[in-house]
Inverse folding.
């Protein structure tokens, strides 16, 4: 028969011998969990940035498809039209103020490409807006995307050939 003090001493010895194991297991599992947390954060932040860029391209393409084009009947896209579309994509406004901030951090109007598809008489048929090259800074890693996102819509705006 064991005395209570001997039983208590045995329990304390066993608990003391397992303290190192618990600390080691915690260190290994917490390292894995922290890596998973940072990976999830990085993926989520990059996805959020890309989604914001997709929405900006969608708004810019919608604006471009309904705007007025006057190209003098030669198929040259007016600089004011392109500038307004780029500003709509980047700032959310075709005529941004001096203190306007980009919708997506790091995008510039020069990063946005506007393509207008004409028929044989230089009447606009389609409008394509895309980002030529953009770098998403997702904290731990940078992702470079080329020619994406891109959206094409039929031109439904007002076309004014010569003298409008």
């Amino acid at each position: 028969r064991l005395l209570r003090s001997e039983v208590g001493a045995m329990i304390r010895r066993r608990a003391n011998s397992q303290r190192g194991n618990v600390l080691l297991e915690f260190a290994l599992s917490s390292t894995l969990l922290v890596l998973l947390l940072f990976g999830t954060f990085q993926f989520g932040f990059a996805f959020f940035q890309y989604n914001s860029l997709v929405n900006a391209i969608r708004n810019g393409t919608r604006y471009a498809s309904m705007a007025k084009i006057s190209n003098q009947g030669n198929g040259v896209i007016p600089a004011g039209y392109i500038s307004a579309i780029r500003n709509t994509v980047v700032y959310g406004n075709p005529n941004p103020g001096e203190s306007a901030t980009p919708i997506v951090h790091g995008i510039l109007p020069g990063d946005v490409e506007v393509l207008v598809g004409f028929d044989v008489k230089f009447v606009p048929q389609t409008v394509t807006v895309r980002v030529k090259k953009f770098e998403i800074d997702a904290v731990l890693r940078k992702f470079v995307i080329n020619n994406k996102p891109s959206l094409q819509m039929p031109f439904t705006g007002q076309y004014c050939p010569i003298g409008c």
User: Anything to note?
Assistant: Residues 4-66 form the longest helix (63 residues). Residues 62 and 153 are 7 Å apart (CA to CA).
